[in-house]
Amino acid sequence: MSDRQPGFETLAIHAGAAPDATTGARATPIYQTASFVFEDVDHAASLFGLQAFGNIYSRITNPTNAVLEERIAALEGGTAAVAVASGHAAEFLTMHALMQPGDQFVAANKLYGGSINQFNHSYKNFGWEVAWADADDPASFEAAITPRTKAIFCESIANPGGVITDIRALSEVAKRHNIPLVVDNTMATPYLIRPFEHGADIVVHSATKFLGGHGNSIGGLIVDGGTFNWAGDARYPMLSQPRPEYAGMVLSETFGNFGFAIAVRVLGLRDLGPALSPFNAFLILNGIETLPLRMQRHVDNALKVATFLSRHEAVAWVSYPGLPEDRYHALAQRYTPKGAGAVFTLGLKGGYEAGVKLVSNLQLFSHLANIGDTRSLVIHPASTTHRQLTDAQKSAAGAGPEVVRLSIGLEDADDLIEDLDAALRA
Ligand SMILES: *Cc1c(COP(=O)(O)O)cnc(C)c1O
User: Fold this and answer.
1) Which ligand 1 atom is at minimum distance from the Cα of 87?
2) Does the residue 16 lie in any domain?
3) Whose CA is nearest to atom 4 of ligand 1?
4) Residue 100 resides in a domain
5) pLDDT tens digits for the chain (426 residues)?
6) How far apart are CA 212 and CA 366, in angstroms?
7) 240 near 223, Cβ under 8 Å?
8) Structural domain containing residue 179
9) Is residue 47 domain-shared with residue 114, that is, in the same domain?
């Protein structure tokens, strides 16, 4: 073999995996077991003391999940990863390793709605405060930073689609204040954007979406970029201070550039418990094997459908950065040259009623609350996910009465266009 680095397509299939040592099984087996037998008492003691790597109990590590973790770390270009039960668990365990009661983090105001709820309400129970900044204005992040700020959080391609974040600019703010930049890379996947190359320190994923890609399992991933120096930094005690539960071990010193991933696993996952089922890890691994092929088709189809809709007489506007006239087109060319994602919104001239009629009339598109499936999906936020908000709140969240969100799947693009055209005319 030459010293050539494997390409993305090769890593998507092979990273982390090898034929099973005992059986020769070529596909990664589902290690559907709660526990693992120790070799002897000394082995058990060294595992519990973090002196040796090995499996104890599937809440903390599992061999199927470990293949998924190595694969996403390779695809993102990180040092290590942790698989967890959902995207929300990935966000929560990340913050748990960074934040103490009374701490604060600055988040972009354009995020997945569930993340906005999690940050605004549930995190209050832990004494964690969120400060919202304008996703399009890096200076607003800097202005929100206080001595208790422990992280900056954004999405690479932001929900509900159509927003490209200037990750490099946010990373410069983070570096000036010596705090980590956490990027939710769910909508882009590492096929479209690799946030570590633009200065991110930690990447989180909902693997439920494009990574798994088939709408069949909930899962989350946390990837350590290995870039942030936690050692000796008293602001991050989980990483820099002696841990009483591990005989005074300092995780950032013992584990160096994958200390963050270790902290998430041996403090967060161990104590809070949102472990990923190995069966879900297996399904997500299978999804990732075809990620490059699928993502390219997703974005190609999305551009065709968005172009068609932007010229349709029933459509007031389309928000898709792949369109040359879009306000995020220049950022899309810089950050997502292969395509600007496959989730976007459009506004209907007919308002609320037209939105309700469109979701009812579509045949191929499924009306549901998810994105990143092989199947094309549609939702009318004003009558579903955002219905409890006032009209002003809906509009501020990009969910005005006329807004419809599409997640473009892998069907024949002409069939999708035909379905949309018929439903818009009905
Ligand atoms: C879906 C989603 C989440 C939450 O992930 P779950 O797997 O549903 O818990 C977080 N961030 C983004 C961008 C998402 O789309």
Assistant:
1) 5
2) yes
3) 87
4) yes
5) 578 899 999 999 999 999 999 999 999 999 999 999 999 999 999 999 999 999 999 999 999 999 999 999 999 999 999 999 999 999 999 999 999 999 999 999 989 989 999 999 999 999 999 999 999 999 999 999 999 999 999 999 998 778 999 999 999 999 999 999 999 999 999 999 999 999 999 999 999 999 999 999 999 999 999 999 999 999 999 999 999 999 999 999 999 999 999 999 999 999 999 999 999 999 999 999 999 999 999 999 999 999 999 999 999 999 999 999 999 999 999 999 999 999 999 999 999 999 999 999 999 999 999 999 999 999 998 898 888 778 887 787 778 999 999 999 999 999 999 999 999 998
6) 18
7) no
8) 8-287
9) yes
Residue 1 lies in a domain: no
Q: Which residues line ligand 1 (CB under 6 A)?
A: 86-88, 112, 114-115, 155, 159, 184, 186-187, 206, 208-209, 218, 220, 371
Q: Which two tokens stand for residue 21?
A: 């040592």
Give distance in angstroms: CA of 159 to centre of ligand 1.
10
Total domains present in the chain:
2
Single out the residue of 279, 340, 380, 203 nearest to residue 28, CA to CA: 279
User: Do residues 233 and 344 share a domain?
Assistant: no
Query: CA dist 405 to 94, 345, 348, 399, Å?
Result: 28, 4, 11, 9
Q: What spacing in Å lies between the alpha carbon of 361 and ligand 1's midpoint? A: 27
Distance 87 CA to ligand 1 centre (A): 5
